[in-house]
Amino acid sequence: MKALLFAVPRLARMIAGLLGDREVPRSVKVVLAAVAVYLASPIDLIPDFIPFVGYLDDILVAAIVVDGLLNYVDRRLVERHWPSGLAALDTTAAVARRLAAWVPGGMKRRVFGGSRRPA
Hints:
This protein is mainly α. It has one domain. The protein is built from 6 helices and no strands. Helix 1 crosses helix 2, helix 3 crosses helix 5 and helix 3 packs across helix 6.
């Protein structure tokens, strides 16, 4: 989880890049814009002033987004906008996959508007 917490600033930069990319589907851009607003907002499901626990909702949202992007969007687009090396993306993706496993696949498909990318 620590890896994902440290990945939140990278995720923010990646979201900004993906929002400006013409190849990214509109449905994905809507999700990314909503996530950016949520992560930047001082209003959270769990208030951030509660030590450690306050960041759990942000971490879970970040995990769902990373997992969703890597499963439902062309990986080349994600790699193009990831601000660190691919090894850091793979590490973040592994952690995100474990956390996002708690979210039903159908919900992720609805959110990202597509079918799962072939492995």
